[in-house]
Design brief:
InterPro entries: Znf_MqsA-type (IPR022453). It comes from Candidatus Thiomargarita nelsonii. This is YgiT-type zinc finger domain-containing protein. The chain has 92 residues and is an alpha+beta fold. It has a domain at 12-73: Ubiquitin-like (UB roll). 13% of the residues lie in helices and 29% in strands. It has one helix and three strands. A three-stranded antiparallel beta sheet has the order 1-2-3, with helices on one face. Strand 1 (12-23) and strand 2 form a beta hairpin.
Length: 92
Amino acid sequence: MFQCHVCGSKEARKTFVTQLLMLDAKPVIVENVPAQVCVRCGEAIFDMATVEQIRYMIHGEAKPVKSIMTEVFTLSPPSMSHVNSKASMPLS
């Protein structure tokens, strides 16, 4: 029986997803991964056989079916200059 470990929902749908993994600090995309996806929060759950198949594929002899270039963005922390200085003063 399915139960989402994120939101606790007991409803999922079987589908295929695309999974982004990091391997040696490089992104690796695995397409057509069978998963149960929570209908409430969208969390994807994979069975152990699928996880092992992915592990073997990316660490083994399998060759990628294609390569792509991708854009990379970094979210910088917000500047503290907009914070009200009174809010950060200690209370006396």
